[in-house]
DNA sequence: GCTGTTACATGCGCGACATGCATGCGTCAT
DNA sequence: ATGACGCATGCATGTCGCGCATGTAACAGC
């Protein structure tokens, strides 16, 4: 009694009680990336957070692990030895944890997806339908954003964020669908007028919150004259305005295509090359339940491929 | 660009970023002990803390893991499957972390040991000498306690606690040395008086803070008459009082033996059986740096075996 | 059958830790 | 020389996990 020899002379397992195992994942990321900043991005941390974590790892292992080498950092010998067994141990651990734990049939969580309201306009209905179909107990909540900030990704209330490929974020991202700018016009416009004609002759209906900047910047670069006929705050007004009062508007193709269900519209390709406008899904690996994310990713792809 | 396929379709390693790996050690303890309370003790947690942790594990793994079965709990099938790979993964992880990180030759930490001042009286000098010898840069700090409380073990400032075997604590403990009560008397007492004679005829010098309760309780149970001659607050006064003014006192043998270096004393065995008074070292596995604890344990054994 | 005991769950307050921001500092490139 | 890049750090903040007190269920003893 009072002599827990098993605990003391055991296989060293109980030593782990005093070790912060959560450091191991950032550690592997750091060793594999050989860069504090990249490792931070990979695990969904900020650079200072990873740096602080590195300090803790150094205290834990009694080794510098990485040393400054000119611009970047290099691994110490000890770190080199660690990388393989660490990866192995973590893979084994991952295998333990990765039993499926998200059951769409019964899960009652609130699925929160952040996106612009134009993306919601495109994806929302199909998304809601598919979620209702495959996860009938879950609730879809769409959080409207205009421009993504750091807080958008670190907000625990948000599962995934859908943003245009032009917006940077340090977190893993995956292309959902490509998109482009098209010219939306009234079907009453002269049939022989091409897209450029429409842009120059028709008054523009401009949504002042979204998608305005760079297509118009291109027009101005090229010296294409255009006239703003109306500024509206809600892009949903546009199809009705265009259909009933004429004029043109610039929209993502997918938005325009969806608008066709609301009003009869003429759609023409934008006559100049534009940077990509694909929609990416982005998520913070630190906050995400990965079984759920995997499922949601597949579902979003279903939605996107049906466009 | 913007498509980190490696992160998404990798070996599932990045999933771990969102997993609290610190749950795994309590989890293994729970699965191996089949008891929330015992598992808590093993890893140095309280029962409620382990229960909370169990809740988190259940959320993480989507399984109840243990179900109430009459008095105790039983493992679910899923939990049964988990135990072996989990132990394996943690052993592998332990192997990674367990490179020696405590170097006595260079370590400058403050080594804090909590004990009663009578234990410090016994062990202090040898302890200080051995630490100065083997860890010359380290500092020994003895924290005096009277009776250990929960806070004594959860105090991060305390590395190990030395307590009598009579005091319960939920943490791992190991016997340092056995001890017993002896009768300390002046060498001028009649040589033919045995211990019982001394106890009944001589005035007792009693330290009112430590070790007084149960030897005297035994005397009272047995109906042995005794007379308290003096109450002192500092037990270090006792050897001088006994040697110069006569009387008897009850002390642990090791304390009495150490007192012999201060004054000439007569020591007799206590004439009745008493519960064990061994001194145990106790430490909280959650707070301890195990390399250091291992070293300190060996050092304390060195000290104790030299008594 | 009632009470005492044991074991697990839970509400709550508190403390500690990790995170992120702002900033500093060193290195490299132009 | 100056800007850009990458890592470190002081600091404030938020959150998580711990422990206490308490609740609840099952078993044992008389």
TrEMBL record, chains A, B:
Molecular function as annotated in GO? DNA binding; DNA-binding transcription factor activity
A Pfam family matched in the record: LysR_substrate
Keyword list, A-Z? DNA-binding, Transcription, Transcription regulation
Q: Which domain of life is it from?
A: Bacteria
- Gene3D superfamilies named in the record: Periplasmic binding protein-like II (3.40.190.10), Winged helix-like DNA-binding domain superfamily/Winged helix DNA-binding domain (1.10.10.10)
Q: Which CDD domains does the entry mention?
A: PBP2_Nitroaromatics_like (cd08417)
HTH lysR-type domain residues are: 19-76
Q: Which family does it belong to?
A: Belongs to the LysR transcriptional regulatory family.
Name of the protein in its database record: LysR family transcriptional regulator
Which taxonomic lineage is given here?
Bacteria, Bacillati, Actinomycetota, Actinomycetes, Streptosporangiales
């Amino acid at each position: 009694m009072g002599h827990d020899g098993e605990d003391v002379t055991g296989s060293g397992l109980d030593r782990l009680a005093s070790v912060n195992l959560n450091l191991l994942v950032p550690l592997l990321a750091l060793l594999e990336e050989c860069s504090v900043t990249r490792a931070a991005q990979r695990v969904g941390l900020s650079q200072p957070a990873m740096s602080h974590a590195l300090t803790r790892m150094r205290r834990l292992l009694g080794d510098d692990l990485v040393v400054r080498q000119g611009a970047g950092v290099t691994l110490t010998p000890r770190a080199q030895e660690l990388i393989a067994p660490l990866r192995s141990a973590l893979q084994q651990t991952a295998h333990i944890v990765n039993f499926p734990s998200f059951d769409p049939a019964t899960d009652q969580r609130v699925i929160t997806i952040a996106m612009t309201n134009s993306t919601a306009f495109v994806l929302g209905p199909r998304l809601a339908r598919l979620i209702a179909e495959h996860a009938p107990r879950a609730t879809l909540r769409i959080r409207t954003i205009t421009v993504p900030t750091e807080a958008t990704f670190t907000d625990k209330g948000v599962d995934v964020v859908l943003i245009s490929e032009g917006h940077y974020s340090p977190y893993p991202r995956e292309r959902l669908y490509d998109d482009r700018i098209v010219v939306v016009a009234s079907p009453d416009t002269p049939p022989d007028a091409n897209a450029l004609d429409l842009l120059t002759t028709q008054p523009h209906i401009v949504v002042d919150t979204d998608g305005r900047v760079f297509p118009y910047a291109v027009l101005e670069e090229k010296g294409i004259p255009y006239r703003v006929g109306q500024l509206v705050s809600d892009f949903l007004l546009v199809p009705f305005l265009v259909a009933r009062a004429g004029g043109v508007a610039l929209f993502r193709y997918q938005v325009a295509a969806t608008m066709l269900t609301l009003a009869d519209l003429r759609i023409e390709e934008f006559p100049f090359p534009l940077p990509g406008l694909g929609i990416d899904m982005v998520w913070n690996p630190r906050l995400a339940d990965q079984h759920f994310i995997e499922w949601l990713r597949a579902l979003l792809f279903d939605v996107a491929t049906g466009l």
